[in-house]
Amino acid sequence: AGILNFCANNYLGLSSHPEVIRAAAEALEKFGAGLIFSAVPSIHKDLEEKIARFHQREDAILYASCFDANAGIFEVLLTPEDAVLSDELNHASIIDGIRLCKANKYRYKHMDMQDLEAKLQDAQKHRLRLVATDGAFSMDGDIAPLREICQLAQKYDALVFIDECHATGFLGPNGRGSDELLGVMDKVTIINSTLGKALGGAAGGYTTGPKPLIDLLRQRSRPYLFSNSLPPAVVGCASKALDLLMESNAIAQSMAAKTQRFRSKMTAAGFTISGKDHPICPVMLGDARLAAVMAEDMLKRGIYVIGFSYPVVPKGKARIRVQISAVHSDEDIDRCVEAFTEVGRKHGALP
Ligand code: PLP
C-alpha cells in the first residue's frame, strides 16, 4: 500500500486498462481458455493483420513469446552461406536464436558503427548479410543508431532486423517504435517484438515484415510449428491495446514528457542517468553494494526500484534501473526524484 512501482515493463499502464481487461474477458468467454494444438481461430489472424498495420509492414506471425520469435527466425532465414552481424549487447534470446542457425557469425562492439562497417566489409564474401540489433537496450536505456545502421546496410547490401520489445507502443511520435523515432520505418526489414510489455499482456510475441518471409516462417519456424498458439484472452488483450494506440497517440506522447521530466530532474540533482530519451533510466552508481542498499532504502520511502549488478551488468557498472510509465503522475515522478536525492545523500552517492 502506498508503494509506487518504478520497475515495471507495463510502460503504458495498459495491463490494467478497463477496455483491455474487458476485451480479454470477452475473448475468454467466446473462445475458451485454450486452444487445441495448432488450431488458430479468426482472432489470431485479425491480430496478425493489426500488428502488420500498426508497424506498416506486409504481414505478421504470432508466437507464444518474443523469445520464441527470436529463437525461430534466424535458422529459417539464414544458411551456412550467409552472415549475421549482431550487437554484442543484444538480448539473450537474439543470441540464442543466432546460435541455432548455421550462418557465419560476427559480433560488433555495442553501437559501434566503425566496427560494424569493418565487419560488413569482411562479410561481403557471404551470400546474404543480416544486421541484428535491439531497437532499445533494456539494461542501458540507449537506442540503437538505426539511421547509421540502415545507411551501412544500404551501402553493403544487408538486411536489418530489430527487436522492439522495449520500444513498441511508446517510442516515436505515434509509439510505433525506434524505427519511427529515427525515421527509418521503410528501411528496417524485419521487426520482432513482444505483447508482454507496453502492450499490457502477460505473454506473446511476433515477427512482422515482408510477406514471403512471414509465409516461410509459418512453414518452417520451429517454435511456431511445435508449440501452442496464444490463449484467446491474451489475443483479445493485445488486440484492444493496439486499437487504443492506433486511435490516439496521447498515451505515447505523455510517456515521452514523463521520461524527460525524470531524466532532467535527476541530472539536475547530480545523478548520472545512462541512455537518452528512453523510459528505462539507469541511475549509474558503480558499486554493487551501494546500488543494493540504496534500492532497499528507496523501498522504505515507498518507491520500488531494483539494483542491478554483476553478472547482469559489467563489473563496476552497478545501477538502479528506473522505468517510467505513462500512469505515473508528475507528482509520482517528483516523489521518486526526492527519495533518490535523500537516499543518495545519505549513502554518499551525492555530495
Ligand atoms: N527481447 C528483448 C529485448 C527483451 O527484453 C525480452 C524480454 O525480456 C525478450 C526479447 C523476450 O520477450 P518475451 O518476454 O515476450 O519472451
TrEMBL record:
<dbReference type="InterPro" id="IPR015422">
    <property type="entry name" value="PyrdxlP-dep_Trfase_small"/>
</dbReference>
<dbReference type="GO" id="GO:0005829">
    <property type="term" value="C:cytosol"/>
</dbReference>
<keyword id="KW-0663">Pyridoxal phosphate</keyword>
<dbReference type="GO" id="GO:0005759">
    <property type="term" value="C:mitochondrial matrix"/>
</dbReference>
<dbReference type="InterPro" id="IPR015421">
    <property type="entry name" value="PyrdxlP-dep_Trfase_major"/>
</dbReference>
<dbReference type="InterPro" id="IPR050087">
    <property type="entry name" value="AON_synthase_class-II"/>
</dbReference>
<protein>
    <recommendedName>
        <fullName>2-amino-3-ketobutyrate coenzyme A ligase, mitochondrial</fullName>
        <ecNumber>2.3.1.29</ecNumber>
    </recommendedName>
</protein>
<dbReference type="GO" id="GO:0030170">
    <property type="term" value="F:pyridoxal phosphate binding"/>
</dbReference>
<keyword id="KW-0809">Transit peptide</keyword>
<comment type="similarity">
    <text>Belongs to the class-II pyridoxal-phosphate-dependent aminotransferase family.</text>
</comment>
<dbReference type="InterPro" id="IPR004839">
    <property type="entry name" value="Aminotransferase_I/II_large"/>
</dbReference>
<dbReference type="GO" id="GO:0008890">
    <property type="term" value="F:glycine C-acetyltransferase activity"/>
</dbReference>
<dbReference type="InterPro" id="IPR011282">
    <property type="entry name" value="2am3keto_CoA_ligase"/>
</dbReference>
<keyword id="KW-0012">Acyltransferase</keyword>
<dbReference type="GO" id="GO:0006567">
    <property type="term" value="P:L-threonine catabolic process"/>
</dbReference>
<dbReference type="InterPro" id="IPR015424">
    <property type="entry name" value="PyrdxlP-dep_Trfase"/>
</dbReference>
<keyword id="KW-0808">Transferase</keyword>
<feature type="domain" description="Aminotransferase class I/classII large">
    <location>
        <begin position="3"/>
        <end position="340"/>
    </location>
</feature>
<dbReference type="InterPro" id="IPR001917">
    <property type="entry name" value="Aminotrans_II_pyridoxalP_BS"/>
</dbReference>
<dbReference type="Pfam" id="PF00155">
    <property type="entry name" value="Aminotran_1_2"/>
</dbReference>
